[in-house]
Amino acid sequence: MQEVATRAGVSLATASFAINGTGARKVSEETRHRVQAVAEELGYRPNAMAQNLSRARSSFIGFITDSVATTPFAGEMIRGVQDAAREHGYVMLMANTESDPRTFHDVASMMLDHQVHGVVYSTWYHRQVSTPTGLSGIPVVLANCYTRGDRLQSFVPDEAGGGRAATEILTAHGHRRIAFINSDLSAPATTGRLRGYRKALQAAGIPFDKNLVLTTTPEQEGGYTAGLRLLQLDPRPTAVFCYNDRVAMGLYDALRTRGLSIPQDMAVVGFDNQEVIAAHLRPALTTVALPHYELGYLSLKWLLREGAPTTGEAPEPTRTLVPCPTVERSST
Amino acid sequence: MQEVATRAGVSLATASFAINGTGARKVSEETRHRVQAVAEELGYRPNAMAQNLSRARSSFIGFITDSVATTPFAGEMIRGVQDAAREHGYVMLMANTESDPRTFHDVASMMLDHQVHGVVYSTWYHRQVSTPTGLSGIPVVLANCYTRGDRLQSFVPDEAGGGRAATEILTAHGHRRIAFINSDLSAPATTGRLRGYRKALQAAGIPFDKNLVLTTTPEQEGGYTAGLRLLQLDPRPTAVFCYNDRVAMGLYDALRTRGLSIPQDMAVVGFDNQEVIAAHLRPALTTVALPHYELGYLSLKWLLREGAPTTGEAPEPTRTLVPCPTVERSST
DNA sequence: GTGAAAGCGCTAACAT
DNA sequence: ATGTTAGCGCTTTCAC
Fold this sequence. Notes:
Two copies of one chain form a homodimer.
Chain A: H1 2-8, H2 12-19, H3 29-42, H4 48-55, E1 60-65, H5 73-87, E2 91-96, H6 101-113, E3 119-128, E4 140-146, E5 154-157, H7 159-172, E6 178-183, H8 188-203, E7 213-216, H9 220-230, E8 239-242, H10 245-257, E9 267-269, H11 275-278, E10 287-288, H12 292-305, E11 319-322, E12 326-327
Helix pairs in contact in A: 1-2, 1-3, 2-3, 5-12, 7-8, 9-10
The first copy, chain A, binds a DNA duplex (16 and 16 nucleotides) through residues 1-2, 10-14, 16-17, 20, 22, 24-28, 31, 46-47, 49-56.
């Protein structure tokens, strides 16, 4: 930078102002242009580290995930966080803990050492987590998870809304006998989707029948066995809302072994919109998408705007529900 | 740090050496312990930015992907790169370009500004890329892609080896009439897997029959239609090697419509080991895994060791083939 | 509108 | 073995 300044015939200070046009100071248009021309010509690049040190604040934000490779979901959140970061001129420092506390501690320290402005902590499936420790002093926001009592701001999928929307696709098609293959896991998705299912039935004036709700492991295998059980019911349901796309995949297999066709003999809707399954099952599966991109995006937006309010007091942390859009394909 | 030094009754310099035990200088065991105790007590954390600035080199490495959310594959590479980075005390700066040249340029600048030691550039599927521009001056290594003439060091999956291994699973089971549903894309995977298939046949003394090689779009849909075509052949093949797991998924559907069972009537092996499909198809699919984790890990290892040799000349860049391990399940 | 100069928090000669 | 001191590359008062 010294060289740029000299070549442009100005002082170091002026060069600095001219280059990153900090509104604070007035540099004549002419000077600025001259300096910028020289900088361009010399291929000058500011040293981000020196800037950060000097400004006594970095332009880093941290993003911690518990698992990055299990599903493409983490990828969507990464994109969301990254897009929001770039919009604000921040650089994302990402780390994956694989749920190892020691690793978590290490990456938290690393981030603190790099003076991150805040961190978004996320999990690959929606769940409750204990308050992340070791991130003292900087704002933290949770994406796809939340803490007991919502002591920290968080953004999570609106499971109930999604469950309701899924079921309403079925009621809208005139189905009255709608089964729900739920998961046997204790998770917000399990309770939320069930709540949504019941709300939708209620809205359609259909009495809730607990015999139509099965629980199983939320995998293809579970969907298969639950599907078989479902077919024993008399009268048979005409539609099924599945906890997730993998369960629907298993249900497809079960229906197939009985020679039943979808959606004629049985309509089915899934949840998660796992592209590789949902879009490529035969017939393609109607489902509800999880808003991972938005979760990441909104979390970081919040962090940057409300995370460390410069004025006024900090807003009350809340658990913000993010809508799960439906994706209609050919199974309904 | 000044405070730590004062409280421990030593100079700033001694404190610095004591804390990050730079072998360069000798600090008595006793002093070091005293300083470290004080640092601990005060909860002192070094400012990474100041360190980087002072050392005139950062501890950053860059990782650029063209797409991070299409499949879980990117996640595996991220893990690989990150693990290697952490082993060497580096921090990963990640960026996703979504294949947008402008974004690429931006993230490249960002990385340069942060003085990254080098960058690994990766693509989500194995392919040739044009030499990334705008990364002048720093070492670059490619993961899952390569340039014309291999001007840059790269690490890519051994497609031919994988294709051969896949086919040999079939020949080992005694199959002699083995079809190959290949992709209609022009990609290293297409040619490589075919080459491997032919090698395996040859090794087993089976003459190559071009009627047994079909090409189709490498999706479920393509596998389905190709599967139907395959069933018209007389005599019918007894085994099929599919370009990827999605094609195998389609083939499963085709076999099912004809009431054929796997592996009794037809053995099938896929490629990619897309967990969500391969492990959950009925029966579970035997396949070949793509070594994404290793691609990321090895790339960064190379970058750190050979990328910028401190002594001797730079090694000749080569395209290193990384093995694709087979995963045997129940379809063979 | 512009320049001089004092740091930001740390490292690494160079002394002692 | 430890202390002194000069930067690293940039930002930002403060004075002109």
